[in-house]
Design goal:
The complex is a heterodimer of chains A (187) and B (249). With 187 residues, chain A is α+β, with helices and mostly antiparallel strands. Chain A folds into two domains: 1-78, no CATH class; 83-187, Pleckstrin-homology domain (PH domain)/Phosphotyrosine-binding domain (PTB) (PH-domain like, Roll). Chain A has helices spanning 11-20, 41-48, 50-55, 64-78, 173-186; strands at 88-99, 104-114, 117-122, 127-133, 137-146, 152-160, 165-170. Chain B is α+β, with helices and mostly antiparallel strands and 249 residues long. Chain B folds into two domains: 2-102, no CATH class; 105-117 and 159-237, 2-Layer Sandwich (Alpha-Beta Plaits), CATH 3.30.70. Helix content of chain B is 45%, strand content 20%. Chain B has helices at residues 38-59, 80-90, 92-102, 116-124, 127-137, 141-175, 208-220; strands spanning 2-4, 13-18, 21-26, 105-114, 180-183, 194-204, 224-232. Chain B is elongated, with a radius of gyration of 26 Å. The chains are: A alpha+beta (187), B alpha+beta (249). At the A-B interface, α1, α2 and α3 of A face α1, β4, α7 and β7 of B.
């Protein structure tokens, strides 16, 4: 097997070495600008596999500036009504049980657990299906049930301070519960 | 001496020497290179790398620095050249040692991936698991459910043991061909494959073919694939922390 170095694919390998390694000069001899991402955001993102990191809710390793820039990129990409500077901690598919006067059904969308709120957003046609701030939540519990096909599934049930009861079916209920619990204990 | 206008934005690249050492530099504005434009950044990276290639061609051994090492003007009285020369003087012995450490060697990246499906299939053949499955078949549904849990836990543990075994095996096999090696963090892939091993290897030029053959064998194993990149300047093997030396004044 021959080693490869001259293609687009190996640019990431070179970048990782250039950005984080190599001989160091004493800090007092060089100019550095703290907190500003020095190189193109997309190249940084491809090093870290950012989208994948996001799906798993791994956000702690990044420094402030990179996160802010990355969050802005995602905000533009997603078309979800995220606010400026709002950071997404976890995202996944989820459905919301809607019990209205006219019809009752599951409404699917993208669930975002952010540093400000929970938000369930459907892209087409665009609509916020559900959202709440963390101190709106009075109580939260995971309930097991069975799908139409007989498969075991987990729901995330919320009781809001207003008395409203909310039932969500996320792709990973436990992960959402943990993330929301972490945010609730922060308030 | 000048290496020509091969620096970033066509800047002239030249050397600053002290005794048997020289630093390869070019002039630039007093701020780090920063941009959002990916294509521009790629050009900068390529320029940086081609300067190193040219230097290697001329001087045969190079110790690389990371991107954006911009020397600050210390004060009005000393020039950047003086600062570099002083630094070379202060660090002379350490730098010579680094040069000798990497002479005749290059850095290579080795990443090994596995397909979790194949791993799962391999563990399902294990005898212990077969035995439990056999027992499960004869039990009533309620009890069988608990066996299923046990089975899943065991399968998971088996898979982890198997993966661990491969990790250690490949690590040792690759280590044999390297003068030094750094274990890097595994990264998530988009593709469903899992990264098992991520290594930066310092390999002597006459050992590279042997390493390539070893990796070819691993790549041919069912469920595994190998990514072999390089040769790179030895970035991973020169970022030592400064050591205190009693003999230094």
């Amino acid at each position: 097997m021959k080693p490869n170095r001259n293609t687009e694919a190996t640019l990431v390998d070179l970048l990782e070495r250039l950005l984080d390694k190599g001989l160091m000069l004493n800090a007092d001899l060089i100019i550095h600008v703290a907190g500003i991402p020095l190189l193109g955001v997309n190249l940084r993102a491809c090093i870290a596999g950012m989208e994948t990191m996001l799906r798993y809710g791994i956000w702690q390793d990044w420094d402030e500036a990179q996160r802010a820039v990355a969050a802005e990129e995602l905000r533009r990409k997603r078309s979800a009504p995220l606010q400026l500077g709002e950071e997404v901690l976890l995202e996944m598919f989820a459905s919301h049980w809607h019990e209205g006067s006219v019809y009752r059904s599951w409404r699917p969308g993208h669930l975002y657990v952010t540093d400000r709120r929970m938000l369930l957003f459907r892209k087409e046609p665009p609509e916020v299906l559900f959202q709440c701030a963390y101190d709106d939540i009075k109580d939260m519990v995971i309930e097991s049930g069975r799908s139409m096909a007989g498969k075991e599934i987990s729901y995330l049930d919320l009781v809001l301070n207003s008395g409203e009861m909310v039932r969500l079916h996320p792709a990973d209920a436990r992960a959402v519960e943990e993330a929301v619990q972490a945010m609730r204990s922060r308030c | 001496m000048s290496l020509g206008p091969i620096g970033i934005e066509g800047n002239d690249v030249y050397t600053i020497s002290y005794k048997d050492l020289c630093a390869i530099v070019h002039n630039c504005p007093a701020e780090p290179y920063a941009s959002d434009d990916d294509e521009l950044v790629k050009e900068w990276i390529k320029a940086h790398q081609s300067v190193l290639d040219e230097a290697k061609r001329r001087f045969s051994v190079i110790v690389p620095m990371g991107f954006d090492m911009v020397l600050r003007p210390k004060d009005a009285s000393s020039s950047p050249e003086q600062t570099v020369r002083e630094w070379l003087k202060d660090e002379h012995d350490r730098l010579i040692a680094l040069i000798e450490k990497v002479r005749g060697k290059d850095e290579y990246g080795v990443q090994i991936f596995y397909d979790p499906e194949i791993m799962r299939l391999a563990t399902s053949k294990s005898e212990e698991l077969q035995k439990i499955r056999g027992e499960m078949a004869s039990k009533p549904p309620g009890v069988a459910y608990m066996y299923k849990q046990k089975l899943e836990n065991m399968a998971k543990a088996e898979a982890e043991r198997l993966v661990d075994g491969y990790f250690r095996d490949f690590y040792e096999k690759i280590r044999c061909h390297c003068d030094d090696m750094v274990l890097e963090k595994n990264k998530k892939t988009g593709s469903g494959k899992v990264m098992l091993l991520n290594l930066s290897c310092l390999v002597s030029q006459d050992e590279v073919n042997a390493l390539g053959e070893e990796l070819e064998k691993i790549n041919a194993m069912e469920g595994f694939s190998v990514r072999f990149t390089g040769p790179w300047p030895p970035y991973s093997f020169v970022s030592e922390s400064k050591k205190e030396e009693g003999s230094k004044t």
